Amino acid sequence: MKPDVILVTRVFPRTQEILEQEFNLLKLYEAADRDAFLKEAAPRARGLATYTAWGADARLIDALPKLEIISHFGVGVDVIDLAAAKKRGIIVTNTPDVLNDCVADTAMSLVLNVMREFPQSEAFMRSGYWASRGAYALTTSVGGKTLGILGLGRIGEAIAKRAQAFGMKIRYHNRTKKNVPFAYDPDPVTLARNSAVLMVTTPGGKQTEKLVGASVLDALGPRGYVVNISRGSVIDEGVLIQYLRERRIAGAGLDVFENEPDVNPEFFALQNAVLYPHVGSSTNETRLAMGMLQVENLRAHFSGKPVLTRVV
Ligand code: DGY
Questions:
Q1: pTM
Q2: Helix pair 100-116, 154-165: axis angle to 10 deg
Q3: Can 231 be counted among the known catalytic residues?
Q4: N or C of the chain: less Cβ packing under 10 Å?
């Protein structure tokens, strides 16, 4: 008998195929009546497969009394109520490491794009302005500048490696100092003060909500840039938009937003912001690897083995 696993939304095609083959998939996203679906699934659903922004809140977890494992596709588990899972002894897994390089590439491209204004200069070119208006304005060099990493985890370290190859100096702040060859700052404000670019790579969730607000952006100052590849919730967006508009910081490179995909349209008018639609890990190769890890965790659990990447 294949174990019953609820799938919250349609996922990466190859992952979906494997999930369909190996488990008795109960597709929550196809249910016309969600409550009726959950009531019917409750006596048999032992697994829950969640995907990027489609997580599991306490209400969903509580509706499934037989739930043993939540296998999440994504490294960030802020969309899962971990306390509710922990209280019930439900295993939660994620898909770390396999996405580090892609997310770090994205982060580095935001640094380059926001400082050198490549997207804006390309738009200038496509508008036919080169001949009529002359050369595009001068921008800011990346080499020699300091990158301050807020939350130096595995992704932060992959970013540091790339930034060093571009001639940047690295500093960081974590709650606890790490054994790394980078200068440590005791708090986010000091890190921002010491950095030309503040790279936000903390986890999302309540603990880091609005960690970057007016005091951090003031410390970064009018020549400083902020890049966020973590979660929109880590930056106070209202304050960020105001600081960008008033040029109280030089620019922002953002892959993540508070209310995705309904991004605050005020961002779109800002010439000093480079905006991506949360594409940090979005390559075929990386998504395949993330999906395989999600599947492997379910396979391991349902064959009585320890899961590979347990969060709680
Ligand atoms: C992740 O893995 O957490 C990415 O942000 C996709 O949700």
A1: 0.97
A2: 50
A3: yes
A4: N
